[in-house]
Amino acid sequence: MSTVGNSTNIFWQESPVGKLERQKLLHQKSCVVWITGLSGSGKSTLACSLSRELFTRGNLSYVLDGDNLRHGLNQDLGFKAEDRTENIRRVGEVAKLFADAGLICIASLISPYRKDRDSCRAMLPNANFIEAKPFSFVFMNMPLTLCEERDPKGLYKLARAGKIKGLIDCLRTFVDRKIASLFPFSPPTNNNMHTYMGNGLSFKDSNKGFVLCIIGFTGIDDPYEPPLNCE
Amino acid sequence: MSTVGNSTNIFWQESPVGKLERQKLLHQKSCVVWITGLSGSGKSTLACSLSRELFTRGNLSYVLDGDNLRHGLNQDLGFKAEDRTENIRRVGEVAKLFADAGLICIASLISPYRKDRDSCRAMLPNANFIEAKPFSFVFMNMPLTLCEERDPKGLYKLARAGKIKGLIDCLRTFVDRKIASLFPFSPPTNNNMHTYMGNGLSFKDSNKGFVLCIIGFTGIDDPYEPPLNCE
């Protein structure tokens, strides 16, 4: 019997089929790829391209899109600071379930605050014998001007007109950090993280390159090798 | 742009790979099997056996166990009435995501109130051309005396000693309904529902039969036939 969070008298039920068995069934290693960045930075485009590319390679992935989840699981949450944190926490928990189920889970949400992202990363083991990189961040480090220029949802227009407070807060976080010359993510020595910069290529061409980089970085398509003690 | 629940300015992102494509990749039809019943009625045992049996048939399933989720996604929830409702709502939303991802999702939680279960069922389409039964309830209709006799978690002992209020409420729901000769679930004409009664067999033998019944009832292992317009 245990007490966890607000629950008492709850018990852990061991899974009848283990994560390794599910990975073996799917012939793939499961992981979470977490795409973070400003609105308009291309997170959804990248998530969709990555999922499609993985599908053509025979891999099963699933996209957890921040906006889509606000239509369902997170529909009770707004954009206050504590709601944002809870929003990200829940996406992290669900991503963990999908990785446990054997899938390549692609989470795509602004998630500007490192502490929230780090909490999610802490939910999954850092590394084990079969998964070198079970949780990878991808930072869509696009220039703010480019994001505003694209503005696919018209959010920047509304934000500049003072009609969306949350987004302005979010922009400030990024902009202030830039002004302070602080790199807002973990340093490159952290090999669970990957960053991208706009590089002069067209958005479409960059995106294609990003997909291949992520697949290479995460090793998603490395041949699946079940550990000896799993046979 | 839309307003949903407590969120504004959110947009629906179409999935790059559709549910039908994922089902095709997995060679299976996805669905949700929702196991409901008293503590000790055998929900977890059935969920585990079903998941294991499906695995041996090459099917990918995932068990959403009520207690396990209270260690993670639902750790902020207690056992007050509104917390129970929110607990079940979230499990329903996650089950929906897993079914959308192409998996056979097995949810196992007491979920005593029909209105909560019905809300979950309403999240998934009732039927479409590929899935006759995308959401099936399995009611572990075990006699209360048998559940108390088993009492695998020692919860009944605590409840009878007045140490768990929530469980007593839950028992009352079931017992009162029995006293009133009310069948606490939808009538048998509803083909999205399946009920089981203790039938004199041993728990182990019953369980084996239940697994086969569920597989037959849901048609999980019927040959996968992609619809013509999916090719």
Automatic annotation (TrEMBL), chains A, B:
Domain of life of the native organism: Eukaryota
Reactions it catalyzes: adenosine 5'-phosphosulfate + ATP = 3'-phosphoadenylyl sulfate + ADP + H(+)
GO molecular function: adenylylsulfate kinase activity; ATP binding
Keyword Membrane applies: no
InterPro entries tied to this protein: APS, APS_kinase_dom, P-loop_NTPase
Keywords: ATP-binding, Kinase, Nucleotide-binding, Transferase
Pathway field: Sulfur metabolism; hydrogen sulfide biosynthesis; sulfite from sulfate: step 2/3
GO biological process, one term: sulfate assimilation
Listed EC numbers: 2.7.1.25
Domain APS kinase: 29-167
Enzyme class: transferase
Similarity comment text for this entry: Belongs to the APS kinase family.
Role: Catalyzes the synthesis of activated sulfate.
Name of the protein this chain belongs to: Adenylyl-sulfate kinase
